[in-house]
Amino acid sequence: MGKVNNNVPLEYSTEENSLKIFGFWTFLGAEIMLFGTLFASYFTLVDRTGNGPTGAEIFEITPVLAETFILLTSSFTIGLAIHAMRLGSKKATLTFMGITLLLGAAFLSVEIYEFVHYAHVGAGITVSAFTSILLTTLGTHGLHVTFGLFWGIFLMIQIAKRGLTSVTAGKAFVFSLYWHFLDVVWIFIFSFIYLKGMM
Q1: What three-state secondary structure class fits 13?
Q2: How far apart are CA 130 and CA 126, in angstroms?
Q3: pTM of the model
Q4: How far apart are CA 191 and CA 181, in angstroms?
Q5: Where are the beta strands (DSSP E) in the chain?
């Protein structure tokens, strides 16, 4: 483990942590390319509905607004968790992380409801090019949130056992970057898939 620098936030206090955080930013660059490709495919295929329904016919504003509110709130609470971590409060860090994960689970429950709704109205993944890319894009984001929930649970267990060290702080900060990234992707989904599709 590298030498600890007490003049910077705990997550940046070792050279190893700084390198890992930089590496994770690089990973997020690859994730941006993944979602960028999905969005480009969506914009190409959005009007290819065949005999299937259009976005205007299947999108419901209430669950979409609920998902957006839940996820944006979770972005705020993970920010509070990192702030608490920097203040050295293990209890507050775990509390806000727990709230974040509960909000993530609530988001997924609404998304599952949404997928069931799509199936009931005949918008399955094989119905048209539009429904295929729609469900692939939403599903990819949903899988990322699901992964984040398991990651967050394991991270909370580590913090509970080991406390707030440079190692656990570095992991928590990287997790917060991941969670914020998912929120940013959702804003694009909300704006360019749902809102545009309802017009």
Answers
A1: coil
A2: 9
A3: 0.92
A4: 16
A5: none
